[in-house]
């Protein structure tokens, strides 16, 4: 505000012409103009001149120093101001000192302005008094009239329009100053906001770093407490799961209450002696897909495990069964290894073992001791698939219920091979080299509990005779079977329920009227698809309990009215699903009563037929 008043005063001086006293000495000449003694004027902004005893004395307003990179002098002002954020970045104490210095300078300028106004006022009063004396005529004489060119020019008065323009300019300057002050304040606020954001980011980064350090310390402590396990492992009170964690050693754990340990998918190659001393109460150990070798497992590795019931060692490099396994074991899996031998001591003391899986190894009847299975008095489930057996192993335990010998080289089933395994319930021999002539007539006919036999994908040419009396489920898929002998199922009691003969070479002559004798009341599911049948086999309409019948993908051309359903049967419809597609049947020629034993017409699949596809290709 003080700057504004002082500026207004300087601008008013531009119009000032001192009233002269005629005949006064000490006049000054400035830029062609005659200035009388003690006259004051402003030739340019911020400069004040005084005529004193014929000498022109000018004084220029001294501006306070500014501390910024880009000073700027606004229109109508004398002193520059800061336009860059330099001052706003000053320290608070320096900024406050600069403001005090500026206020002190403005105060001094105001005092100087007032002093000059007072001097000017006194000069004007003196001039008025002299003029009054001169006009009063103290000397009682009138001085001769001076020439007009020597008379001072009257003081010009600005017109009204000029005053309005000055007022408008003053207002505009005031508004500009206000806007500049507002912009400066806004810029300061923005800079303060940026500084606050930087400080907050810095604080956040520092907090994040501290948190990371604490997290690393916690992980280090946890790792120390959990026997060196990597962070990705899942650890609970009774379970440790550390799968695919790139472990190369067996971790030294000390968790007495631990019940379950899974280290599957690592690179562990050895188990040292007494490795489980810190976890003696384990019940399940999973070491699948590691690099364990027989030499790498110490003879005392499993010592001290008093409650272990399940041990999984699949997918390693073992050549023999690990020694001195805990006698509490109930399930042992060593699939997909390199086992080359099973001796009479391999299963010593494993009398509690119920499930044994040794698939995908190098075992054969030549390297498997018949006495090896003697200790396994409770063994119920044995898998020896994907090995090199040519005969069924000897000495199998009496307790055995399921025997799986898939994908071997078995060519023969002798009469005595199953003499001891009288409790067998299931035998799987699929993908071997058996034919019906190499199956001894008395091999299993007297078994009372054998209900399921899988002989699929062998070299059979007809359905084997002398099948077990108790047989319920017979799978013969993917052989070369051309004939089902008559009465082959007649001795079975209570009777065969599931017969799968898909993908064989059966034709119309290979099935006799008596082929299914003995299974008319028991058969539930019959699959004869993907053969070479020319018609619906006889005897099917007599199967009163049949639920599923597959005759698709044959060469059947017609469906006689009584070939599938017996019109004289008064019971409820039993057939749930009937597949007849991909034959040569004309659906329009099939009598609706031909499917009277089918529970729902939607359960009959008749399309597409081969003749339909041939016709379609011809049209195209």
Automatic annotation (TrEMBL):
Gene Ontology BP term (one): positive regulation of cell-substrate adhesion
Region (Disordered): 88-110, 145-233
Chain intervals with Acidic residues compositional bias: 167-180
Record's keyword terms, sorted: Leucine-rich repeat, Repeat, Signal
Family matches, as InterPro entries: ECM2, Leu-rich_rpt, Leu-rich_rpt_typical-subtyp, LRR_dom_sf, VWF_dom
Domain VWFC: 26-83
Transmembrane intervals: none
Official protein name in the record: Extracellular matrix protein 2
Native species: Amphiprion percula (Orange clownfish)
Highest classification ranks of the organism: Eukaryota, Metazoa, Chordata, Craniata, Vertebrata
């Amino acid at each position: 505000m003080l700057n504004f008043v002082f500026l207004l005063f300087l601008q008013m001086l531009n119009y000032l012409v001192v009233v002269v006293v005629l005949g006064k000495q000490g006049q000054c000449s400035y830029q062609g103009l005659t200035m009388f003694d003690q006259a004051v004027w402003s030739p340019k902004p911020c400069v004040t001149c005084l005529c004193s005893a014929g000498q022109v004395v000018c004084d220029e307003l001294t501006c306070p120093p500014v501390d910024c990179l880009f000073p700027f002098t606004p229109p109508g002002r004398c002193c520059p101001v800061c336009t860059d954020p330099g001052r706003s970045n000053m320290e608070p104490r320096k900024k406050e000192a600069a403001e005090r210095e500026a206020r002190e300078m403005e105060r001094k300028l105001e005092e100087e302005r007032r002093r000059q106004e007072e001097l000017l006022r006194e000069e004007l009063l003196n001039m008025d008094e002299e003029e009054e004396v001169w006009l009063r005529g103290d000397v009682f004489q009138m001085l001769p009239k001076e020439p007009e060119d020597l008379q001072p020019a009257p003081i010009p008065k600005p017109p009204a329009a000029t005053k309005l323009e000055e007022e408008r300019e003053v207002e505009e300057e005031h508004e500009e100053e206000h806007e500049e002050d507002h912009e400066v304040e806004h810029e300061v606020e923005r800079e303060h906001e940026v500084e606050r954001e930087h400080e907050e980011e810095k604080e956040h980064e520092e907090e994040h770093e501290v948190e990371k350090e604490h997290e690393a310390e916690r992980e280090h402590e946890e790792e120390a407490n959990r026997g060196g396990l990597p962070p990705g492992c899942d650890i609970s009170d009774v379970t440790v799961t550390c799968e695919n964690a790139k472990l190369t050693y067996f971790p030294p754990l000390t968790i007495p209450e631990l019940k379950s340990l899974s280290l599957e998918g690592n690179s562990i190659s050895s188990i040292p002696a007494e490795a489980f001393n810190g976890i003696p109460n384990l019940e399940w150990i999973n070491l699948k897909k590691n690099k364990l070798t027989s030499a790498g497992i110490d003879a005392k590795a499993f010592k001290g495990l008093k409650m272990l019931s399940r041990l999984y060692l699949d997918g390693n490099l073992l050549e023999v069964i690990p020694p001195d396994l805990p006698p509490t074991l109930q399930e042992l899996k060593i699939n997909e290894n390199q086992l080359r031998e099973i001796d009479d001591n391999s299963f010593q003391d494993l009398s509690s073992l119920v499930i044994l899986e040794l698939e995908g190894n190098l075992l054969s009847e030549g390297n498997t001791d018949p006495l090896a299975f003697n200790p396994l008095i409770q063994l119920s489930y044995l898998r020896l698939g994907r090995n090199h057996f040519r005969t069924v192993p000897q000495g199998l335990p009496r307790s055995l219920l399921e025997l799986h010998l898939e994908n071997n080289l078995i060519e023969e089933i002798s009469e005595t091979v199953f003499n001891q395994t009288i409790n067998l319930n299931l035998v799987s021999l699929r993908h071997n080299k058996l034919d019906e002539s190499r199956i001894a007539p008395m091999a299993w006919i007297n078994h009372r509990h054998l209900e399921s036999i899988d002989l699929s994908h062998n070299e059979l040419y007809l359905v084997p005779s002398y099948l077990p009396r108790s047989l319920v489920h017979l799978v013969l898929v993917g052989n070369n079977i051309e004939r089902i002998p008559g009465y082959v199922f007649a001795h079975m009691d209570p009777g065969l329920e599931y017969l799968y003969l898909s993908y064989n070479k059966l034709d119309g002559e290979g099935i006799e009227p008596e082929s299914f004798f003995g299974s008319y009341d028991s058969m539930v599911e019959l699959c004869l698809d993907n053969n070479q049948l020319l018609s619906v086999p006889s005897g099917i309409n007599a199967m009163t309990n049949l639920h599923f019948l597959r005759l698709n993908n044959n060469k059947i051309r017609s469906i006689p009215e009584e070939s599938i359903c017996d019109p004289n049967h008064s019971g409820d419809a039993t057939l749930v699903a009937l597949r007849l597609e991909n034959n040569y049947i004309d659906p329009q020629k099939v009598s609706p009563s031909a499917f009277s034993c089918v529970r729902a017409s939607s359960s009959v699949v008749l399309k597409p037929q081969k003749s339909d596809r041939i016709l379609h290709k011809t049209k195209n």
